[in-house]
Amino acid sequence: MKIDWPEGKKFAFTIFDDPDSQRLADGRKVYALLADLGFRTTKAVWPLGPVREPNSPGDTCADPLYREDAIALQELGFEIGYHNATLHSSTRAETIQALDAFRQYFGHDPVSMANHYNEEAIYWGPARLSGTRRAIYNAVTLGRTRNRHFGHVEGHPSFWGDICRERIRYCRNFVFADINTLAECPGMPYHDRDRPYVNAWYAASEGSNVARFTCTVAEAHQDRLESEGGACIMYTHFGHGYVENGEMNSRFRHLMTRLSRKNGWFVPVGTLLDYLREKHGDGEITRADRARIERRWLWEKVFRGTS
């Protein structure tokens, strides 16, 4: 699917960075590189600090220095996204508190989000899929995520679906190995009538750690993204191997420098999705299209381990 990108650009590229395992000093190094190279991407945060045992390491906006750094990135043109309330499961009241804190810190509700593996994750685990594909997912994963995510389940203490619909525009779901996210999910952002608490869904390309990221954005893949005129939304955690002992991963630096020299549109996730939405309209996905995407993702999940 060819898109006429703004300013005569040939393709679009951005990143949604989940905050898991990310410490302030290391994150600063990554974002300084991206800023210098002209990228403007999306940094997700946890608005609240933990009040119970965390399920993941990483800094949160409860740290004033971390919060001030995120605000500074926003002022530079980066987007701040949402990764649930904090680094452990949260109640409905805590989620509302987190979204209120996000609005206080950044001046508005989140435009884009991605689920953390908390109980309040919305339409997550087997709820990502439909029909027989859900049954296959449960069989393959031995049911490990069954009955673990309740953000969309009315009456559960972690339910916040109505709040999500009211306050967040885009939520991430399927992740694919292909660099051209738009080729895998050409209708994004799309609304799913069977999952009505999310206004619109988007897909991403696999880059959960530095090894997977650099594989997906390897030189040949960059060139193909450019030739196809596509769009890439990379899913990653900049806390997973990008900086080791204070040093930036050299392969990541090289690939991002190479990509920055191409005629790409390097904007945050929300900006890219808003543009696609203008092109597509509101994008109600058909069940046939959703079944195709689910089959493709489930195959990759089973045989490639994509997220």
Briefly summarize what is shown.
With 307 residues, the protein is α/β, with parallel strands linked by helices. The chain has helices at residues 24-37, 64-76, 92-106, 131-140, 161-167, 181-184, 210-216, 219-228, 250-260, 269-280, 287-303, and strands at residues 11-17, 42-45, 79-82, 112-113, 170-176, 200-205, 231-236, 243-244, 247-248, 264-265. Strands 1, 2, 3, 7 and 10 form a five-stranded parallel beta sheet that branches. It has a three-stranded parallel beta sheet with strand order 4-5-6. Strands 8-9 form a two-stranded antiparallel ribbon.
- The counted number of beta strands is 10
Overall number of structural domains: 1
Q: Shape, please?
A: globular
Percent strand equals 5-15%
CATH architecture: Alpha-Beta Barrel
Separation of termini? 24 Å
Largest beta-sheet details: 5 strands, parallel
